[in-house]
Protein 1
Amino acid sequence: MPQAWSYPSTISHGYAACATCHYNPYGNGPLTDYGRALSATVMSARPPFSRATDEELAENSGFLGRQDRLPDWLRFGASFRGMVYASDLTRKGQSRFIPMQLEATAIYQSKSRNHQVVATMGYAPDPATTPTAKRSRIPNLISREHYWSYRASRNITLLSGLVDTAFGTRVPDHIAVHRKYTSLAQNDQTHGVLLYWTPKPWQVGFHLFLGNLYQKSALRHKGGSLILERLINDRWMLGTSLLHSKNDYRTRQMLAVHSRSRHGEGNAVLAEIGLVRNRSADATVSLANYIFLQPSLELARGLQFLTTFEYYTTKAFESEERFFRVTPGIQYFPMQRVEFRFELQTSRYLGQGVVNGDIYSLMSQVHLWL
Amino acid sequence: MALRFASAVLVFLGLLHFAAFGRNPDVPTKTCRIYRKQGNKWKALTPKSATKVLSQATLIRSIRPLKGERVTFEWKGISLATTQDCIKSETAPPPAIIHSQVQTAAHSEPKPAAKKSAAIALSLFNWHEPLSLTSGSDTYELSSSHFGFLFDWGMDWRLGHSWLWGFRGGAFFGMSEIAEETGGSTAPSLQYRLKGATVFGALVGPQIHYFFGKQDSQLGFWIPITARFSDWPNPTEGSKIYAVDPSPAVFLGLFADVQMPITEKSAITFSTGFTRSFKNLSWMLGTKLKI
């Protein structure tokens, strides 16, 4: 998972803070050595036909094998995620392959590991909505993130560069309601400075950002966000996030409350509820509301039964239009560096005198990483 | 271009920091290696079910990136030690601490769960149900969505070491929303729209669950028979009187049912499945309390 988004359900194994396993204190992006070792010995099943002990699996969890093969100051990673998406199964029934992620990362760290420089380059497919004539102008090779991280003390980390906005929780699914409708999806990284402070039992993140400097100035969202999280006990992390940002076309304000909790060994519930207020240049204001809930049950080591419940409405506190999505599925890590996901997505729309039947879609994902 | 240059400068600055030496790691590398080798030795002496937690503890050789986070190592729901306990100990390596705690815990292991158990649960539900509006030979397809609360009671018996079977039943009350089935983006052909109409009823059926460990994590199936009542009005169009069909209705459901513990006596439950039709997914989400 060096380039993967984070799996917040790792709290089910006793790890509440993303910084335990990721270079980025709010998860996603490359894994630390410890994170790699955990992914091999806790998150993934034992490789078939292997007699290696967990300690040996942990030792061999590095890029191309043993962790000590590379000098301590240098780390690499690479990741590919693709999906076959069969949509609207009961009606039209179309299927297509979607390359979701193709990335490579290099990390340099000082011996004390107090200084880290992380750079990830990725392939970005042409957006389907972009006219063919304009596609040649859009670069396909882009910097997904690049930042310098400085651990000033045991409790304070400063991070500067292009990263994902610190807000709410992060999951790999970029069409999840709390990523899509907050405009915090796979291509929404921003340049800025992030302060990560961990006075126990709190975790505080303060992110000041200038927008993505590779974009045109008018499009860049400038602003700030704040995340406050508190470890209530060993099994429950509760947090809240605030964000204010503005570009030439709209002002965005968001508020979210999120929770990550552990329910027995290997099981977790991830929840986020949020409000998104958008004010456009012509002073039109909209207030949307979303709920994301994802319980995961560990059936065996490396094998999870996931069910995602999602709700979204463009008009919060009104019941005019409502969108529901329930997605039961299986997530399987047969060994470190390999992930399969099979999910049945059922989407439902209610409102304006319409009660539509469910739209069923089948998502089969494969994720390979080094 | 300037940005790319700035990025290159940033990377260069990072490279300069290779020379920067901060604090010593929390655990010296040599000690870490010793822990790793000792992990295997302790594994041979510790029950197989504790292998995972032993491995986790052994891995704290890489404690440096933990940034002070406190992780509790657990075995069968019993807290054995924290990372801090393992780090502070100057005499025993982490695997030895875990091994010792597992031995102690094994002697005070809680008794196996009772053979018979009962529980109550309160759930939020959303069921979809296909309906039709009929008058003589005229039939229009309707789609309904029921949202409400289900209160139920269940009784289970253990079947061997890992299985539970039993019955679960209760009453539900909710609001329904009904409209013509458009099948997508086409405009509805007949105007029959209800919002906030009452639905209520009862359901009961057998269930079977598989147990995961002693933590009360369960995955299984529930097959309820549901009797649903409603007060949907029958519309008229000129001399035609339409009837919403079926109302009331008795139908069968099939749900995949999951439970995950909150405390020893309470659990989160969620179910996804089908009621009456495979065209729509129904779900329930709630909490359960053992009585």
Protein 2
Amino acid sequence: MLKVGLLKKSVGLFFLALILVLAACGNTEETSNAEGSNEESSDGGGEYPTKPIEVLIGFDPGGGSDQLAQLTQPYLKDYLGGSFANEYKPGASGGIAWTSIAQQTENDGYTITITPSPQVVTNYLINSELQYTLDDFDPIANVVTDPAVIVVPSDSEFDTYEDFAKYLEENPKGLNVSHSGVGGDDFFSLLRWKRQTDLDVEMVPYDGDGPSWQAAAGGDVDASFNNLGVVFSQIKEGNLKALALMSEERNEMLPDVPTLKELGVDVVAGSSRGYSAPKGIPEEAKQKLYEAFEKLSEDEEFKEQLKEVALPLDVKVGEEYADYLKQEEEVSSEIWEEVKHEYE
Amino acid sequence: MNEIMSGLINVLSIWNLLALAVGMILGLFVGSMPGLSATMAIAILLPLTFGMDPATGITMLTSLYMGAMYGGSILAILVRTPGTPAAAATVMDGYKMTERGQAGKALGISLISSLVGGIVSGIVLLTVAPLLGKLALSIGAVELFAIAVLGLTIIASLAAGSVIKGLLAGSMGLLISFIGMDPITGTPRFTFGSIYLFDGISFVIALIGLFSIPQALKLVEKDKEVIKASKIKDKMLPSWQEIKALKGTLTRSSVIGVFTGLIPGTGGDTASWFSYNEAKRFSKQKNKFGTGHTEGLAAPEAANNAVVGGALIPTITLGVPGSSTTAVLLGGLMIHGIMPGPTLMTEHAEVTYTLLWAVLFSSIFLFVLGLLYTRLAVGVTKIPGKVLAPIIVLLCVIGTFAVNNSMVDVFIMFAFGIVGYFIDKLNIPVAPLVVGMILGMMLDTSLHQSLLIGDGSWLIFLQNPISAILLFIALISIFQSTPLFDKFIQLYNKRLRQDSK
């Protein structure tokens, strides 16, 4: 009996120790970051931020929003003199996190969220069940914009965008084109391109950017509307060919790939990621956050790091970001009204 | 060749060996707790690895992944609460062995099978990974659909006793998997307007409810009975003879594990059911499956550890995650400034080859540390039911909440728990329901995609050679499980006898 008791105890102790280790690991980042804020608050009195800023992320860890959080926070932390704690609340393509920002969280500047666009607006345009709109947010700053790109398999008969467009003129709806899912950024890039060019294709939705380019690389579909940051290494390695980029200017990493604009198709699209706060946060907090992002946009080390992961910097702070989101909302809602009937 | 050797030397450094050990202990622990998964643990630990050398960090996380794959089986065998979805198939024969008083032997076989699966996948990774990487890309929507159909035929062999009840449970599983936004049109289905159901029912959450809650209730019910498992008299490690008898099953299941891991979107949960089914198909003692048969235990165990290496193949050769856990791992690489993609094998060869060796070495750590950990964990069965039951419920609540930080998920988990309890009382098997849930989403999405690609023609499934073959095997499987098949065999045998006369 004694032996049994001992064993039980040791099992209990073992589990307890492991739980502590795990808990300690989870908190390490928070505590280490918090050190910086202590100094600030002791001499600055009630200056923002006096406690860690919670960042609500509406997607799984390891996704695009998390990547932005992990890339930016080491720098922002220093510029703000504060710390961050990330909370993941995945669900309804970010909708659960944003609804809670709009309706539940306090607008004291200590809860902010990551807002990828156009998803943050298209989400509620498409699903009337979602109870938030852009008006519930104070957009803080956009950080990166990953331009949309048209890619084809490496053994595709199309070498240029002109070949691709010409084939579609002769064979309307003659090609299968994958995108990352209904309501996603690639879905809207594809629709915008269709509207501008009057060309038609069979749109095949996949579950995310990855499966979408894989379908093209594997020859399941003829082309994919994707994002440069996602497919860059595949283009470099020759698994995919890039036909055209939907940015204002050519990208220095792919100098030979033309933009749709220079080919006479006026579409600039992509997937942007930035930070937003709930409506009506204190002016002081807002200004501090704006400043931090202004400084971030100048940081050479940060720029270098973005280059490594092939994400183009595109900082828009405050009003500029708000206008940008408003414009995205207008364009997307117009397009959605046109195609809505096909998806109901 | 140089990279392979420098990877080996890297792995053998003190820090990396320590990382392997720490990762393994954490993996065994999170794996054994229902609700805590490898994916989650890796996500939590990621920030901790930023301060480390990328190779060391990744080594630790890989070891954790491997450990969790075995850890999930410990409580599945001892108290019928699988710690991870990949261990659900282990319950089938593992818990039955415990009921028969062979808990020690069951754990030993599970450990040996995990070791074999891990080593096979490690060797495959080190040798032919680049060749197999391309294969992962060639599996498209059409092939996935055929795989899902073939997978559904497993239901027939899992419907212990009543085919009707098995089919009923399977259809329930399929229906549950259809909850949420339609992946093709984006239309919400069966969500009753609630945004919490937009993403569907998380598989992990349903699984915790279906297995763990009914088990907790049962423990309370039969508290007065002495649980036979509490006396582990038998030796843990199986004899050489016993291992040799499992040779075929282990090899087959490891191969199935590697290939299932290779296919993007399928992981340990799918692999374990596939290999269970194949083990049964090839076994000479089919009717012993589900009663505590060693082959039925070894098959899923070898497969779910073999998945680790398989899932890493497309991850390192193409930057395509082979499972949800490797997806988080990829995210970790990106944060370390390593761009996932084909360049992993060339530009970042040192990190990559360290990772490959880590898979192989983590299997060895798994064996040693797993043995120690299991001896401790066996203590669980000595806890009386009335104490253990509330602990299980508590772990379920914590584990479920941790998945999405959502209380709604906890309620869903309890709903599944209550359903699970009653379908158990009605003798409806749970396994087909689980298989239906795993494959439903894949079936739905790939069917719709294939039809879009094939301009609405169903012939696309027959024009594609891989899918045609898989569908043909599925047809045979269905035929095999009907009474007609037995008649056919009898007739054939009669013929033979007549001929020989």
